[in-house]
Amino acid sequence: MANQCLRFGPEKGCDPSPQSLETRDLVFLDASQAAEAQFWVPINYRQLSAGELNGRMEVVDLPDMTVFHECHDQSLNKSGVLPPGQCTLSFIDRGHRDARFCQFYGADGVFFQPEQHEFDILMPGGQANTYARIDQQQLIRALQILDVALAEQLARSRSLQYLGFNAKARLSRAMHQVLALGQAPGTGRGGADPDGLRATLMEQILLAITASDGPLSGDAPQLHGRRRTWRMARAAREFLEDCLHRGITPGMVDLCAHLRVSERTLRYVFREWMGCPPGAYLRRLRLNGVRAELLAPGPATTSVTAVATRWGFLEMGHFSRDYRTLFHEKPSVTLTRALTA
Questions:
Q1: Which residues form the HTH araC/xylS-type domain (predicted)?
Q2: Pick from 139, 123, 133: which is nearest to 38 by CA?
Q3: Whole-angstrom Cα distance, residue 135 to residue 207?
Q4: Which of 35, 62, 136, 302 has the smallest CB count inside 10 Å?
């Protein structure tokens, strides 16, 4: 069932309180398409593992709440910042040791992400992530009825909160039931009531939060070491991306000088948090940048060579080989497909 009202909140021609269940089932062939589908939050996707990307996102829109279920067959790095007033509750469907949510590595449970939180997620290929976007004030007000102290703790939080595994079983069951209803026949006009679904899901979310072992804050003292290396990895990525957007291809010396760390420390940070050495990560960033530009050609996209050299590639043979290895497609095919779409 395709939803024709694709933006959250009131829009021209869209009923902000739909009388039918609004759903979307989206298929992606590129990481940038997954980012564009989540227009409620500024988010960047980067493909890290080699191979053709096949992804899917199921979306169910409810009043002041949206449920997402996303899966990809390639490893992706996702980063962004939640907008004011919006929070999320999320989990990885099957816990994975290589999955990372900010400074939490391999944690199998529910995460509460407060408004304006800067996130950085590493999702291994073949894994699925489910989350709900919720109005934070409404969630906190409702939670105060059940647990005032817990509601105040989450309201004050500025960092990611790990709610543990106990919260996951209840939340996973409820959110997947809503997603299943969105895909079932008969949930369009005259089908499932969105207000009733929202009320039921909100209750299950609140009960899942109160069933937690007590939130573990991302700012907890025992996470100091992880937090430090995560922030270093984030600063390194931001420096690399800033340089690339200014037409500069930084080297290892530039990166170490900017972060004021040794090469050995830098290599450890990247292997721990990005799953690859700094040079390989930089090359994948540049290849992702080329692909994003080829998929959305503008006046400056005159040829593959023009785009590739703009991203610092000088040897076209090596560039084309690396591009095919990462995306399983020739760069010329990407550009032709975009121009004829």
A1: 234-337
A2: 133
A3: 17
A4: 302
C-alpha span between 114 and 136 (Å, rounded): 7
Residue 7 lies in a domain: no
In a domain, 153, yes or no: yes
Contacts of 32 (CB under 8 A, 6+ apart): 45, 291, 292, 295, 296
Tell me the two tokens of residue 116: 């304006």
Structure tokens at 223: 């996470």
- The two three-digit tokens of residue 130, written as one number: 């489910």
Regarding whether 167 and 49 lie in a shared domain, the answer is yes
Which two tokens mark 314? 């000088």
Helix H or strand E segment including 228: helix 224-245
For residues 112 and 119, is the Cβ–Cβ distance under 8 A? no
Bridge-based pairing of strands 43-47 and 104-105 is: unpaired
**Number of other residues whose CB lies within 10 A of the CB of residue 224:** 11
- pLDDT tens for each residue of the chain, 341 residues long: 333 333 323 333 434 444 567 888 999 888 888 888 898 999 999 999 998 889 999 999 998 999 999 999 999 999 999 999 999 999 988 867 788 888 887 778 899 999 999 999 989 999 899 999 999 999 999 999 999 999 999 999 999 999 988 888 889 999 999 998 877 655 544 467 888 889 999 999 999 999 887 788 888 887 778 888 888 988 998 999 899 888 888 888 999 999 999 999 999 988 888 888 998 999 999 999 999 889 888 876 778 999 999 898 989 999 999 999 999 999 999 999 888 87
Q: Which residue has the tokens 């004021």?
A: 260
CATH number at residue 199: 2.60.120.10
Burial 6-42 (b: 16+ CB within 10 A, else e): eebeeeeeeeeebebbbbbbeebbbbbbbbebbeeee
Which bin fits 139, alpha (ψ -120 to 50), beta or left (φ > 0)? alpha
Domain boundary among the residues 202, 217, 232 is at: 217
Q: Which of 128, 160, 155 is nearest to 141 (CA)?
A: 155
